[in-house]
Amino acid sequence: MPRPGKNSYSDQKPPYSYISLTAMAIQNSSEKMLPLSDIYKFIMDRFPYYRENTQRWQNSLRHNLSFNDCFIKIPRRPDQPGKGSFWALHPDCGDMFENGSFLRRRKRFKVLRMEHAACKSAPILHPYHPHAQHNHTHHAHPHASKLSMGHPDYLGSVGRLSHFQSYALGGGQSGGFKHPFAIESLIGRDYKGVMASGLPIASVMHHLGYSVPSMVNSVWPHVGVLSESTPVSSEYPPFGVAVKGLYHHTGSSNMPAVPVPIKPTPTLGAVPSLTGLAPGTVQLCSRLDREATDLMEDKTGALHPSLLQS
DNA sequence: TGGTGTTTACTGTACT
DNA sequence: AGTACAGTAAACACCA
User: CB < 7 Å to strand C — which of 71-100 in chain A?
Assistant: First the structure.
């Protein structure tokens, strides 16, 4: 992939996919979520290329938001009138980018949605699931990846957006973010501190109108606090991706992979509870926080100076 | 009515 | 060559 000159993004297409661009925009926001219009605005502000043909790329971007499970829709609070919902990054989407390339992901991030009745034999419990409190078993379905949302086999059998949805990971992303080329490598770097405070997921919770006690880490004690011993490389591949281990879990390594998509369902609504915060939720939001700063600081020399405007 | 969101279909490209 | 992903177009529904 050609590396554009440092000042070459003015009018040519940036070397980022729509997914990357959208993730940047979301992560650059203080609340880690943005309405569609603000995502448009972020992209147009920073990449002049996208100030033209808006119909085309905005349609593509909307397609990506809906199609890719790495983006989750967060409904507006009643006191925040406006068009459309907020969009945020899925807690466990941090593993999808190919090494050094933000034009192409390593793999598509998918969230498994299983019909409640169809997964009784191997329940994957969604924290908002009405029956979740009755069953504390969190087993990934052996065929979880095959049953991931959008997979023809799955669509053919149970359909999409059922009223009782459970979630599990497809793509073997359980347990956190082990890859240095994660999406947060694009937009975040040092997550310590932020993680300890439980932000910014707390801001999301606050946005939704819930009180956010400072107990996120006590609820999820295994949620990683960036280890001091985490190896950090000083090498950077093209496009400003820091080659380094981001962190590892300090607690149990066999925690269940139960992401917490906030994608609402018609019956369950989109009401997350604090206990519904999966480890990845805190991890991702926290880790993404600082990397946005990294991005804007252009420490790698790969980003256009216009990115510094934020 | 326009913006938003979902879905399907298709093409091009990169990877295995 | 087959597969997966990205990009684009388009149709349609919903809603402020």
Answer: 81-83
A 114-173, residues with C-beta < 7 Å of strand B:
160-161
A304 CA from B1 C1′ (Å):
38
Confidence of residue A88 (pLDDT cuts 50, 70, 90): very high
User: Does the C-beta of A200 come within 7 A of strand B?
Assistant: no
Nearest residue by alpha-carbon distance to C1' of C15? A83
Is A223 exposed, middle or buried (CB count within 10 Å of its CB: 0-12, 13-18, 19+)? buried
pTM: 0.54
Residue type for A236, please? Y
Structure tokens at A145: 């990846």
Host H or E run for residue A169: strand A165-170
> Which of A109, A126, A114 lies closest to A171, judged by CA?
A109
Predicted confidence (pLDDT) per residue in A35-79, tens digit? 999 999 999 999 999 998 899 999 999 999 999 988 999 988 877
β-bridge partners, A112: A168
